[in-house]
Hints:
Elements: H1 6-10, H2 15-22, E1 26-30, H3 34-46, E2 50-55, H4 72-76, H5 81-92, E3 97-102, H6 107-113, E4 119-122, H7 127-140, E5 144-150, E6 153-159, H8 167-171, H9 188-206, E7 216-221, E8 226-231, E9 260-262, E10 268-271, H10 281-288, E11 294-297, E12 301-306, E13 309-314, E14 319-322, H11 327-337
Parallel strand pairs: 1-2, 1-4, 2-3, 4-5
Antiparallel strand pairs: 5-6, 6-7, 7-8, 9-10, 10-14, 11-12, 12-13, 13-14
Helix pairs in contact: 3-9
Bound molecules: zinc ion (ZN).
Amino acid sequence: xxxxxxxQQLFKPIGPDGQQKIGKKHVLVVGAGAxxxxxxxxLVRAGVGKxxxxxxxxxxxxxxxxxxxxxxxDAEERMPxxxxxxxxxxxxxxxxxxxxxxxxxxxxxxxxxVEGVDLIIDATDNFDIRMMVNDISQKFEIPWIxxxxxxxxxxxxxxxxxxxxxxxxxxxxxxIGGMTCDTVGIISPAVNMVxxxxxxxxxxxLVEDFQALRRKLVSFDLWNNQHTAxxxxxxxxxxxxxxxxxxxxxxxxxxxxxxxxVLCGRDTVQIRPPVQQERNLDQxxxxxxxxxxxxxxxxxxxxxxIEDHRLVVFKDGRVLIHGTKDIAExxxxxxxxxx
Length: 339
Ligand SMILES: [Zn+2]
């Protein structure tokens, strides 16, 4: 056990002092998909003190090609990603305090989750959540590392509140918003590359070697052999509503209006009930068993297949409606069977 981190400590910029620091730090990873599982595994192997990982989804077969913590049984059983990730991460390093949450993060959730956190890693595929993370980072003065990938393309940037421009500042200058994952697919090396950028920056922050941080926005296209690093220091705007002088944190304001969302990459609509309340899944399973569809259940969620649709209900009341991108149709199904 004692030489567990020996190779990392031999690396001079970390050393025994850096290792001690890593062991005292708390990192929040938002999302347990491709980027989230890669970052979480790296941090846990590196010996981070505490890791909080949150995800709202469950494991599907199409995830296994690139989401490195999951195995076939997780997809078979539709395990929530946070639960499956926690299990695997604990097997990898039982010394790390792992706090895994099956949760759809909104502003309130994020504000609670960042308590005592030293660093946030962005591993979400959702633009709204990413912008929320941006404003939370500014409000609570916690650094965060942006990362995204699609196809063979990836991008990453490290944001230090009070020093670097924030993602809101960058938006007007750098094309960041338009990435969608459903039409062009993704290859795993693009994921691994973004994870490498994020993890390296994370280690620098955890050992407090801020001088070593990259300070440039990197992007690459592995298939087309392109690589760029843009100096964005001058893009920081005093008028920015997220990090400027008269900031209002606009991405933390509209949260309660976005109850229904079409999920990235899938024929799926998510509906959150207006008031969060725990669902009795056994009772719901009993009611649905007379509706002519097929009901499957595990301790975390209930799945109800009917005709071309599948409705997945989580204990917190959230419902995923598969087989449609039409919000009105999804709401009809929701009210007919669930709400
Ligand atoms: Zn800004």
